[in-house]
Design goal:
With 281 residues, this protein is α/β, with parallel strands linked by helices. The chain has helices at 3-8, 67-70, 148-151, 184-195, 202-222, 252-261; strands at 12-21, 32-37, 44-49, 59-62, 79-86, 93-100, 105-112, 123-126, 164-168, 179-183, 234-235, 250-251.
């Protein structure tokens, strides 16, 4: 959608930035936050400052019509913004592609590196297209119940909700892809925000969240990748797993929903492992 039509449209979304130090997630106070349309980083539309909690005020930004995200459409259903964060004593950081949907509150985390640990280049995060809008490889089919006895995988004695999982940001055999230690809840919130639109009916978001959690816990329970010799829990590839995007924004309603059901998953009678609930196109 052309930026001119966004500026004159009536649909609005909201955005709040949360700035922390990369060392210990300490809130960064008085950070200067500049927001611009993606593609126009030198034309700021908002300038904000963080409070003692490292958060900015919530601001309204132009967004496409609601119909684009709740009905099938070829139009991009979200607007994209660039967020630049600068603070004394820290390396600056820029996030490009923060996704603003109408009638929702987007929460954009930004992590700043202290100058003593920085490597001299500004931290730059680029958020790619949403899974439902972009072009991603389809899931390679797998059985929803893994034949553990036949494969000899390492298996936990019971289903455990982990505090952290290790996400491999690429396909399994890509040794150059980085591994990230991510809190389980944060991982689920990221994937839900990447796989569905926050404007959907709440029951639809709940259903998709349950499928995403069950999929993830199946990987955890069967130690699927570690049993194959890999040092991670799950990948970010849609061909193998689910779309996790480093540094992306989430949404306040998805944040709330996951906090209320994060220990749940889907199972079948007589089967201990969570169902491998992969998406079908």
């Amino acid at each position: 959608m052309p930026e001119e039509s966004l500026q004159t449209g009536s649909a609005r979304g909201r955005l709040q930035i949360n700035v922390t130090s990369s060392l210990g997630l300490i809130p960064v106070k008085d950070a200067a936050v500049t927001i611009s349309y993606s593609g126009e980083p030198n034309a700021p539309i908002e300038k904000l400052s963080t409070d003692s909690s490292g958060q900015t005020e919530r601001i309204e930004l132009a967004a496409p019509p609601l119909d684009y995200s709740v009905e099938p459409s070829e139009q991009r259903p979200y607007s994209e913004y660039t967020v630049l964060v600068e603070a004394p004593g820290y390396e600056s950081a820029m996030v490009s592609g923060t996704e603003i949907l109408p009638d929702t509150l987007a929460l954009q985390p930004v992590s700043l590196k202290p100058l003593e640990t920085a490597e001299g280049d500004m931290e730059s995060v680029i958020i790619p297209d949403h899974t439902l809008y972009g072009d991603y490889p389809p899931k390679i089919p797998e059985a929803e119940i893994k034949p553990i006895e036949e494969t000899g995988e390492i298996v936990l004695s019971r289903v455990v909700i982990p505090e952290y999982i290790v996400v491999h940001d690429g396909v399994p055999d890509d040794a150059s892809a980085q591994n990230y230690y991510v809190k389980y809840r944060d991982y689920i919130k990221n994937v839900v925000s990447s796989e569905v639109y926050a404007t959907w009916e709440e029951n639809a978001i709940y259903a998709n969240a349950l499928a995403i959690m069950s999929f993830t816990l199946n990987r955890v329970y069967t130690e699927w990748y570690r049993g194959k010799g890999y040092p991670f829990t799950i990948t970010s590839s849609t061909a193998y797993d689910q779309n996790w995007i480093y540094g992306r924004n989430i949404y306040s309603n998805i944040d709330r929903i996951i906090d209320s059901i994060f220990a749940n998953y889907l199972s079948r009678p007589g089967v201990r492992q969570p169902i491998f609930t992969s998406y079908c196109d």
